[in-house]
Design brief:
single chain, 69 residues, mainly alpha, 3 helices
Length: 69
């Protein structure tokens, strides 16, 4: 999938009112707005993985892509 197509699809899904609610719920689930130290390395990896999904969604939506690609 091309970057521009991916961005358009992600924005279409997550820019709607329902999409914003889903994204907010995912952020809450992933604890993406929290930076906590977790001493258990396995749990830390698990939490980091959840957080990275939200970061990737936001990155794709905010990425500045030349529409002439």
């Amino acid at each position: 999938m091309e970057k521009l197509e991916k961005k358009q699809l992600f924005c279409k899904v997550f820019a709607s009112e329902a999409g914003q609610l889903v994204l907010a719920e995912l952020e809450n689930f992933a604890k993406s707005n929290e930076a906590n130290f977790i001493p258990d390395p396995r749990l830390e990896s698990y939490i980091s993985g959840r957080r990275s999904v939200i970061c990737e969604i936001k990155h794709i939506m905010e990425e500045n892509i030349d529409e002439q690609q």
